[in-house]
Amino acid sequence: MAKRLRKRTSKKARPSEAKELDDHCGKEHGKEQMAEFQPEMPKESSAQASEPSHEPQQEAEPQHDTTSQDTRIHESTDASKKRKRSRKRKRSNVPHPGPDPEGMEELSEPAKKAIAYTQQYLCDKEAWKFSKQRQNWLLRHMMWSPQLYELGQALSGASQAQVEESRRPLLPPTLPLPDAGSWIPEEHVSVVAAYLASIMGLAKQRMIESLQAAAQASAAALKVAPAAEDDQEVSKAQEAASRISSLVASWDELRKARATQLLDWIQALDQD
Question: How many CB atoms lie within 10 A of CB 218?
């Protein structure tokens, strides 16, 4: 019998198979090397990383700048106060006509006409007409008030031996008293000042100078009573000096107040 021929298989791998084998071995070897150098992760940390966190995250509370808010509040408050002050200041500079002088029995007829003259100038300037006589009366009597008139009467009846001669022309009786009722009441000062502020030229300059002198006048200096042998006479002289000193001090105080009041009104109206 003829021998069966066996197929000879080459143990050498084909080039393609050898290449696939090499690639597979290289990948396996690479995995082994990576496993050697990769550190082992702790189980707890990996478990924590895998499990989602159920704790609610705290949101950061918005910070309010209280300092800036307080500053803005204070600034707005200060601004409103300034506006209120300016409005009050503007309202206070507005003169008022005052009551009708015809109903004031204590006033003289010239005083009533002069005050009504200033009221018409303030309230009805179209119908108002200039009067030199009324203006001169106002300039002569603008400093007089009922209180000053009463003090003038008291000074006229008192001895001025203790008053310096330089002050006597500024005091009654050297300074003549007006007629009874010839003064400017307190409620008509603003309307009279509104008219006086409108005067122009040299007349206004002289008026301002006289008001400033009255507002800056110092208290009257009194002489010391001369020594006398009789104690009773010394006592009388001291009483007279004390009385005249009190009267002069009140006189100066009231004149300063009226002069300052008129100056303030005139200056405020000149600025408007």
Answer: 8
Rg (CA), the chain: 54
219, 220, 224, 230: CA torsion to nearest 10: -110
DSSP reduced 3-state for 222: strand
The encoded tokens of residue 41 equal 């992760």
Q: Show the CA angle centred on residue 185, arms to residues 180 and 191, nearest 5°.
A: 130
Cβ atoms within 10 A of the Cβ of 167, count? 18
Distance of CA 90 to the CA centre of its chain: 12
Residue 146 and residue 103: Cα distance in Å, rounded?
Answer: 17
The tens place of each residue's pLDDT in the chain, 272 residues long, gives 455 555 555 554 454 454 454 454 455 544 444 544 454 554 444 444 444 444 445 555 555 555 555 556 656 666 666 565 555 444 467 999 999 999 999 999 999 999 999 999 999 999 999 999 999 999 999 999 999 999 999 999 887 777 778 888 889 989 999 999 999 999 999 999 999 999 999 999 999 999 999 998 765 444 544 545 556 776 777 787 888 889 999 999 999 999 999 999 999 999 87
Q: Domain map of the chain by residue range?
A: 96-271
Closest CA relative to residue 192, chosen from 78, 103, 269, 84: 269
